[in-house]
Request: fold
Amino acid sequence: MTQPIEIYDTTLRDGTQSENFNLSVDDKIRVTRQLDKLGIDFVEGGWPGSNPMAVEYFKAMRDVELQHARLTAFGSTRHFQNSPDKDPNLQALLAAGTPAITIFGKSWDIHVHDALRIELEDNLQIIEDSLAHLRPKVQNLIYDAEHFFDGFKNNREYCLATLGKAVSGGAETLVLCDTNGGTLPHEIPPIIERVKQYLQEIKSTVRIGIHPHNDSETAVANALMGISLGATQVQGTINGYGERCGNGNLTSIIPALIFKMGLECEVGKNIDQLYSASRLVDELANLPHNRYQPYVGESAFAHKGGIHVSAVQRNPLTYEHIEPEKVGNIRRILISDQAGRSNVLHKAKKYGLHLNPDDPLMSSIIKELKDLENKGYQYEAAEASFELLMRRALGLQRKFFQIEGFRVMNHKYQMDKPPMTEATIRLYVGGSEVHTASMGDGPVNALDNALRKALTRFYPSLEDMELIDYKVRVLSGEYGTGAQVRVLVESKDRHNRWGTVGVSVNIIEASWQALIDSINYKLMHDEKNS
Reply:
């Protein structure tokens, strides 16, 4: 029986090294939860020895219970001048308190001489004793052989010797890294075959993993080649984010392993959530989604006109290599109103709404959804807004309050001091008119404060709710400061977290839409559970 393939995600570490890719600690926790739900085996959270945010993240994760994924801290072998028990990097790794630790070491003799500036034997020593120091203190210990393929091409015997020292130190998985991303698929087989032969020679049964970068546009191919040759762990990132040209794209690697190669991995049980995970990472990183991305792109299963549409309507296999639903995506017939029907039915079932495929309301929901998406609305990170949309269409959404108007004023009295912001709101709850004003740190915070102030007397549970994240994306740059913007708001109470969205050319109006949805969702959820 073959070993299941381990999926190791490094979006939160390697992925964040991508240009313009930034996540807050709360974002990283949210991504971690999604990856755990997807069935990822290892989630690499960051390098605690390199930056305070990673330390803060690992500290926060102590209160987060993961169902499957093993949280992993990443770092390097010890500094040559430090003993393992005194090395700050190794101590930071242990302080992170994770069940798994991954450390990298130098495989390429050029790096040993020019980067570390130590002797080749010294590098072998720090690999072995760094791992040996960590081994008794952690459940899973992984060794990333940095620049392995370049090192092998330059000095194969030394490169293999570094793996031997990692085995001696207690590594359970040796990950062969194409750090510069310059290796092509045809170069992989003889190198991995020699590694396997070497491990037999030293009588080791450790796992082999592969960690490809995409500088030659071959990271996915190299990952699949490595797995076909016996590697049982693959490291990559969601949507392929990473330094320079990126890492191996797990949203392409995972479905290929499962559907094309017939291999077993935990993600296979939940792979229909791959699309959602892909979109969530993009939304939280505030980056546009690549619509042409295989498997999870909007255009991956889109058909436009002519022979393609005719054939796909008769039999989708004529122009689709897998069924889009398998990865959570949908088929889009661009000249038909059928796009999104299965997705709407799936969401209705999830929200406990009774909706039949032939219900006349189905067409109106899809039309409204398409109209809103054309305006820039996206619901992957704002499912609360989507549920409210469906409930309104079905006539199931109670009107908890009615807004009559609002006003936001910024007063800049002194140029060397921040402005004062005040929001006023007039609304009705039942037959009662409420007119309130509130100060805030900026217009959105002032609006949020005024809205809560007006409603809390009627709905005391709003005291438990707080806005925890706020993101703005400019949807088109062609109109400069007059461009359309999308606002994503994340809120939470003592039991749940939810996301809402608003779109407008006016950033205050877009924020207002997201805030209103957030409060409506909270009140609806409380009512359902009362």
Notes: The first helix runs from residue 25 to 38. The radius of gyration is 26 Å. The chain has two domains: 6-284, 402-529. Residues 6-284 form a domain with the TIM Barrel fold (CATH 3.20.20.70).
